[in-house]
Write a structure and sequence with these properties.
Length: about 475
């Protein structure tokens, strides 16, 4: 049987491991450097709390066959929950997903009137798009100046760390689902009874935390004979004839895995540096020229049953540093532990900058100050706080990034029996259901030990149309 080494135990990695084992297409060894599967979509325990690495939801847009598999794993523990968040816009809180009545009551009136004028202007014949588009030009032309200047542009600066005019137009098309007034109106009207599409305003969430999805895939893959090796980091991927040898380390222990194929879900930039013989200088230079935005997750434990009724708060404005805060207990409506809850604040940054290098105590104070400034102060001093640091949270699509990513992606794709896929592997802004769709597509392309590259190219064209759900 074909032997496949899978690098990375996020949803794309464990999803492929399980499906390959179930369909008896390959013998699988999966290497995950962490102590648990799930990657950035994983969960962990802390003082009786079940916490995620930030805010995660399984969206109803998930392909039916994938959702059916997840339901078969989790059963009644996969909850169907209503969305119930809010956005702080010009000092006022507005429900998210957007609701017509809430917009009328709480939206800043000046902002509302300016947005309506922009919408009316957009109803007139559109001017042609310029050849050299950017994130800023695409959204401003589609949504008008008001919404962009007060919402999308400051949020973009916080999330990606650069001016919206420096970001690629692709960032707008793949990251902003409400990219026109028509789409925005449909999202608002989706909350109205009788007009609500199936699944609108809802999400799926495992009772035991979001990481339960990846954990279930991994457990079932093990049951079918796949090896899920936790704590192992790949240190080199060596070409041995038509096959590969993956060298890995766990502390002071080392091992070498012989494989017919390597399927990688780790960052494509990291993959390029691990390959032996070494990638050409131009390819390594391309890998160095694209990068990811890091994320700090600041957790505050406070002595109340529940901080608020909302699952998530969004902070697009430049007056506070954090971009989103979630309350994990609210996602699954857990009651335990009694008298305590945890808040998770998200702070995008760059590895090595002043936020990344700050102490846990300083970051906890920063979050408390941001909440105070936003009108939702902590009811008491946190009884504990800690930080998780994610070096690769979001790919940054600077204008012209395709000039580096294109050759890197092409060169990796030319390596026999080597596949890169998943959110990190394809440098993609994608949700969990997208990452799992890539895993299922990859397994579909494997027949009789041969990977069908033409079929994979067709799947890649579909992946390029993915738009992030939030």
């Amino acid at each position: 049987m074909t032997r496949i080494a899978i690098l990375g135990g996020g949803p794309a990695g464990v999803g492929a491991a399980w499906l390959l084992a179930r369909e008896k297409k390959a013998e699988v060894v999966l290497l995950e450097r962490g102590g648990a599967v799930g990657g950035n979509a994983g969960s962990f325990e802390h003082a009786g709390h079940r916490l995620d690495y930030g805010s995660h939801r399984l969206h109803p847009a998930c392909a039916p066959e994938i959702l059916a598999d997840i339901r078969s794993f989790l059963g009644e523990d996969l909850l169907d929950r209503p969305r119930h968040g809010r956005i702080r816009l010009l000092g006022k809180w507005v429900h998210f997903p957007l609701k017509p009545a809430d917009l009328l009551v709480h939206l800043d009136k000046g902002f509302a009137l300016s947005s309506l004028r922009d919408a009316a202007a957009k109803a007139l014949p559109r001017r042609a798009a310029h050849g050299d588009e950017s994130f800023a030009s695409v959204l401003e032309r589609s949504l008008g100046r008001t919404i962009c200047e007060h919402f999308y542009f400051p949020y973009a600066v916080k999330i990606w760390g650069c001016d919206p005019r420096e970001l690629s137009a692709i960032q707008a098309r793949r990251r902003v689902s409400a990219g026109s007034f028509g789409k925005l109106a449909r999202k608002v009207l989706a909350s109205v009874p009788g007009l609500k599409p199936k699944g609108a305003g809802r999400f799926f969430y495992p009772r035991r935390g979001y990481g339960a999805i990846s954990e279930a895939y991994a457990a079932h893959a093990r049951d079918l004979g796949a090896e899920i090796a936790l704590g192992w980091s790949a240190t080199a991927i060596e070409r041995v004839g038509a096959r590969w040898r993956v060298r890995a380390r766990d502390g002071g222990e080392e091992r070498a895995i012989e494989a017919d194929q390597v399927w990688s879900t780790i960052p494509i930039t990291v993959l390029a540096r691990l390959l032996r013989p070494e990638a050409p200088t131009a390819i390594l230079r391309a890998a160095d020229s694209i990068g990811y935005r890091a994320m700090l997750l600041v957790y505050l434990e406070i002595q109340v049953d529940r901080f608020s009724e909302y699952d998530a708060h969004y902070f697009p404005g430049p007056d506070v540093a954090i971009t989103r805060m979630s309350e994990p207990k609210n996602y699954a409506m857990r009651q335990e532990p009694r008298g305590r809850t945890v808040l998770c604040a998200e702070l995008p940054c760059a590895v090595g900058d002043r936020h990344w290098s700050a102490s846990d105590a300083d970051l906890a104070r920063l979050v408390a100050q941001d909440l105070e400034a936003s009108g939702i102060p902590l009811p008491a001093e946190p009884v504990s706080s800690f930080v998780r640091r994610l070096p690769q949270a979001y790919p940054i699509y600077r204008r012209g990034y395709e000039d580096a990513f294109g050759p890197l992606d092409l060169w990796i794709g030319e390596q026999a029996n080597l596949l890169t896929y998943g959110r990190q592997g394809l440098f993609a802004h994608d949700n969990t259901h997208h990452a799992l769709a890539m895993a299922y597509a990859a397994v579909e392309c494997l027949e009789g030990g041969r990977f069908d590259r033409e079929r994979w190219r067709a799947h890649r064209e579909v992946f390029a149309m993915h738009v992030v759900e939030d």
